[in-house]
Design brief:
The protein is mainly alpha-helical. The protein contains 8 helices and 2 strands, in the order ααααααββαα.
């Protein structure tokens, strides 16, 4: 099953993801792309805070909320990472890491359509991640949800 899913993902990448990302990269200046990345990362600070607290790292959770407040206000909705400039580092955590801290084993390796390689634990963790991601609840003017925009943004980063 993993081989077939991997082959599907390769085809999807060749036909859809890569051309979209290359087009985005071509028409969008690098400073704008970097700003868009910072905005998306800023919107994920509440999820970082929740996961840090659930892992017992309460101080890191509070720092994630401080990052959100600083970058959302002084950083103009996260376009600028002012929190980084004043020494508040990003403490990225996700539900898969939280489950690992709670002692849940990673399980077997699998390849998820479009998303790519993962473990069972991290694959299952994608469900609550969707609900923790504020971009899930935003419907931009272009009609694409936040997840599609993030995928194109991330793909462009790796080209």
């Amino acid at each position: 099953m993993n081989r077939q899913t991997f082959a599907f993902n390769q085809g999807f990448d060749t036909v859809i993801s890569r051309p979209l990302a290359k087009g985005y990269q071509f028409i969008t200046p690098k400073p704008v792309r970097e700003s868009v990345t910072r905005v998306f990362k800023n919107t994920m600070e509440p999820a970082n805070a929740v996961n840090n607290v659930m892992q017992g790292k309460v101080e890191d959770g509070i720092l994630s909320l401080f990052r959100l407040m600083i970058n959302s206000t002084v950083g103009v909705a996260g376009i600028f990472d002012v929190a980084q400039e004043v020494g508040i580092e990003r403490k990225e955590e996700d539900v898969g890491q939280t489950l690992a801290v709670w002692g849940i084993s990673s399980g077997p390796f699998l390849v998820i359509p479009i998303i790519g390689p993962s473990t069972v634990r991290d694959g299952i963790a994608l469900v609550p991640e969707v609900f923790l991601d504020p971009n899930t609840y935003i419907r931009p003017l272009n009609g694409l949800g936040g997840e599609e925009n993030t995928l194109v943004q991330e793909k462009g980063f790796f080209l």
